Amino acid sequence: MSDPTPAPAAGYVRFQGTTPHARGHLPGIFALVNGLARDGRLSPEQERFRRANNDWYDGAYPEPSSVDPTVYDHAVNPGAVAWFKAGSTELIERVPGYLEILAAHGVECLEVRSENAPGRIVYEDAWQVVVVPHHPDAP
Q1: What are the distances in angstroms from CA 82 to CA 41, 47, 66, 127?
Q2: Are 16 and 114 in contact (CB under 8 A)?
Q3: At residue 15, what are phi and psi to the nearest 5 degrees?
Q4: 3 with 71: CB under 8 angstroms?
Q5: pTM of the model
Q6: What pLDDT was estimated at residue 136?
Q7: Fewer CB atoms inside 10 A, N or C side of the chain?
Q8: Sign of CA pseudo-dihedral 36, 37, 40, 43
Q9: Helices 44-60, 95-104: crossing angle, 10 deg rounding
Q10: Pick from 33, 32, 38, 4: which is nearest to 17 by CA?
Q11: Which pLDDT tens digit goes with each residue over 97-137?
Q12: CB under 8 Å to 85, separation ≥6 — which residues?
């Protein structure tokens, strides 16, 4: 696992879709691109990018659900979503490639920022948080 020291987190950032998924929450960028892949909609070049970058993220940073299997459990943490800490530039600088894939498929994605924790933190490491949103209809 990579051990870069992120800049102090001056807030949080999330990249999410604009259409709620089946449980009514807005999916994040990785869920959106992985969904396109599951549906067989990615070009070979897009799939190479997705696989290489997903592998990079998996190898370089903790996957919250591998640290705490209940973090995304709907019964335990309803609506839990991940946010980057704004100082996690190494993670965020790979996001534009995912955004390009989504744009090529007409999938809208928004960048959302919050200066304070955007919900009740149920997981945290140096680069990211997983929160249960303060409001049930929030992302």
Answers
A1: 25, 23, 14, 11
A2: no
A3: -115, 120
A4: no
A5: 0.86
A6: 52
A7: N
A8: positive
A9: 150
A10: 32
A11: 999 999 999 999 999 999 999 999 999 999 999 999 986 55
A12: 6, 9, 11, 12, 13, 126, 127, 128, 129
